[in-house]
Amino acid sequence: MTDAHKTAAETALRTTGGAPPDDVDKAPIPLLEPREGIPPVVATDEALADVVAAFAAGTGPVAVDAERASGYRYGQRAYLVQLRREGAGSALIDPVGCPDLSGLGEVLSDTEWILHAATQDLPCLREIGMVPSRIFDTELAGRLAGFPRVGLGAMVESVLGFALEKGHSAVDWSTRPLPEPWLRYAALDVELLVDLRDALEKELDRQGKLEWAREEFDAIASAPPAPPRKDPWRRTSGMHKVRRRRQMAAVRELWTARDAVAQRRDVSPGKVLSDSAIIEASLALPAHVTALTALPGFGHRMGRRQLEQWQAAVDRAKALSEAELPQPGQPLQGPPPPRSWADKDPAAAARLSAARAAVSELAERLNMPQENLITPDTVRRVCWEPPGDRSEGAVAEALASFGARRWQIEQVTPLLSAALTATPTKP
Q: Taking the complete model, does pTM exceed 0.85, yes or no?
């Protein structure tokens, strides 16, 4: 980025308080080519060794991105990793040809990694041996700074004055060889991440939020891998229509059978059998394959063998004893849904209403989303079972126990303590 563009970006940030300007004197400049051209795809150990050496010798933070094949392949593995660092240029690495990037991760372990929406990419990067110790998340920085749109394209345009072409974001990145336009798009995704990071750091510092952002980034970098989701079949789209336990068992059996097929074929589960088809079969509990074929999602294009495996899943659910059937809902973790509070505990409902209003007002004053100021779940937990004395010290301790960061505790503790004190105690 030229000095002129840096000056324009800083002026826009300074005059708009972190939000894009209302009127732009010049249209954004289309970013059409990486400044050193499209780098070759690294798919061999020899080429990877050269990249490791180059990035180890580079300076400053490293921009990192990853492309997955969501909707096409099973799981969320990375199919392309993009990096850029001063002194090393850009690199495109194929994790299919180079499935172990731990050597690259090691030489960058003490370097700050710049990612956009880090929580989306870190799991797949961790699978191939790339685990950062420090990060700067440009999407989260944009949220904390008050930007109304925080997608990478929107941020680059409003902060740096460039327009990124985003037409290939949802393509099948498992395709080999990757088409040149896709590679160009991938290289451009890290082209300006360092510049964006620098501009956002200045803006966060200007707003007095830089230390807050650093606490958030540290929390993301140090978070352990998420545990496997319990009963993932319960998240089948349309599950709210399923009321009876045997129908729930059919959802579970069909979902499990579909997942096994999808994993074996390495395709997205939705390409094997749609959620809507699972729900239809579970509601109908067909007696045989002919009845199953008449249901939406099980048409004439589906082979006899496939139909028989889905009917077998339904039959397994129908053969279960009452004791083997799933329970209607998952065990509650934390307080009940807020819509039921007025009946279950009117005092708690009053506390929650007061707390929400206070948090909303503060978030607006700080120019950031409420969920970034404090998570709604944390507010609900504190309001449902507040500490006994309602003091700021006790509230702060409760917030910390739910994972709130220091800056969040400092900002919301006085408000929540006041909201809890002004409403009755749960008998």
A: yes
